[in-house]
Structure to design on (391 residues):
């Protein structure tokens, strides 16, 4: 079991920076012993311990911060807590801070026997300011930076390694088998390969399957990462009634077997398959359809006037191919309009046009005026009445 405790403020001694011809110049009466270094884009950290000349056991933790652009020492920092301290390792955390592992040895007097080992872990910012710290009650055999986690290797093989996150809390290593959509970055110390290629930085954005191996001396960790293709503007299995614009985060894309450029529009009615090929056998397929459309008539519609039909895609009217766009139909009759996708019928509409001027409205035995006889009868009767009255 690990016993972790929070430490109080450490005594921090600031020393004047010195640099001569690109080499660190030791102050008078002091020897530097370095255990390793850590570099960022702008800074270099060298860590170990310093020993006063003439003393055998008076050494303290040492951290030197160097500006890489000017090759000037920014600060030399000494960590003294009343023990014999040496900085054994420095790693990177997920929040951009750093983990500093200090091994402490207590020497019993007057026998000068080494009696006790324990370990401190500091969380510092880029300029060495202590943000957090913990004390661990025993010694470790090695240290590693697993991405954004600090790994402390146990001496006893039957104990699990101690893994610390950016809060200096014990945690477990994540399992990297998931799919990432916005890319994947992973800091590390040591060497790394991505799909067998040695890389200086693990920063993966192109769609694909990636095998990552991190090696730091005898520490090796391997995991797999999938970077998913990001496709905007189209969904697998969807049917669209208007042109669509497709955007893909890859240059290796085909549409129905032809090279496709991200950002292009697809407007021609038909069945489509968009294929994105990525690294190491990765592939994503999206099937969709741009459907033909028609306006101006409906199935089983009856029209008493000229109809204007607007068609997109391939269409036939009573078995004859018609052009895309608008056409007018004024001839009376029955019609069958078929919309096609390639050689398959997509939609069939039957409708009828009736010309009202062709309807026979003479239902009075050929007489265009069915009430003429009645009117004539009335006139005759009125005339007779007037003649009789006059007599």
């Amino acid at each position: 079991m690990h016993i972790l405790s929070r430490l109080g403020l450490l005594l921090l001694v600031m020393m004047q920076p010195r640099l001569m011809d690109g080499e660190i110049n030791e102050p008078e009466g002091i020897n530097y012993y370095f255990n390793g270094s850590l570099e960022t884009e702008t800074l270099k950290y060298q860590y170990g311990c310093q020993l006063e000349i003439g003393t055998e056991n008076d050494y303290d933790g040492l951290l030197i911060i160097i500006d890489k652009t000017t090759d000037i020492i920014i600060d030399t920092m000494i960590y003294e807590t009343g023990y014999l301290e040496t900085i054994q390792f420095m790693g990177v955390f997920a929040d951009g801070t750093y983990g500093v592992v200090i091994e402490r040895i207590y020497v019993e007097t007057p026998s000068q026997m080494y009696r006790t080992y324990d370990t401190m872990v500091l969380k510092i910012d880029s300029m060495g300011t202590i943000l957090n710290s913990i004390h661990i009650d025993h010694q470790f055999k090695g240290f590693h930076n697993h991405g954004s986690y600090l790994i402390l290797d146990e001496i006893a093989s039957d104990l699990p390694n101690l893994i610390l996150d950016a809060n200096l809390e014990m945690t477990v290593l994540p399992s990297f088998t998931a799919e990432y959509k916005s890319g994947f970055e992973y800091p590390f110390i040591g060497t790394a390969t991505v799909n067998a290629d040695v890389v200086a930085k693990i920063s993966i954005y192109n769609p694909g399957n990636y095998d990552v191996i991190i090696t730091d001396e005898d520490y090796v960790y391997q995991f797999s990462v999938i970077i998913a293709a990001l496709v905007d503007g189209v969904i697998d299995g969807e049917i669209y009634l208007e042109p669509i614009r497709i955007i893909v985060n890859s240059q290796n894309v085909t549409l129905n077997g032809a090279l496709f450029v991200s950002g292009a529009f697809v407007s021609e009615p038909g069945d489509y398959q968009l294929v994105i090929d990525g690294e190491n056998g990765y592939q994503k397929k999206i099937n969709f359809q741009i459907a033909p459309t028609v306006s101006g008539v409906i199935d089983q519609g009856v029209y008493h006037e000229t109809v204007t039909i607007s068609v997109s895609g391939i269409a036939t009217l009573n078995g004859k191919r018609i052009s895309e766009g608008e056409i007018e139909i004024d001839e009376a009759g029955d019609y069958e309009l078929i919309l096609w996708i390639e050689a398959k019928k997509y939609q069939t509409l039957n409708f009828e046009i009736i010309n009202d001027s062709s309807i026979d409205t003479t239902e009075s035995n050929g007489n265009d005026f069915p009430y003429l006889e009645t009117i004539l009868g009335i006139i005759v009767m009125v005339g007779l009445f007037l003649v009789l009255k006059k007599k």
Q: What stands out?
A: The first helix runs from residue 372 to 390. Confidence is low (pLDDT under 50) at residues 1-18, 361-366. DSSP finds one helix and 39 strands in the chain.
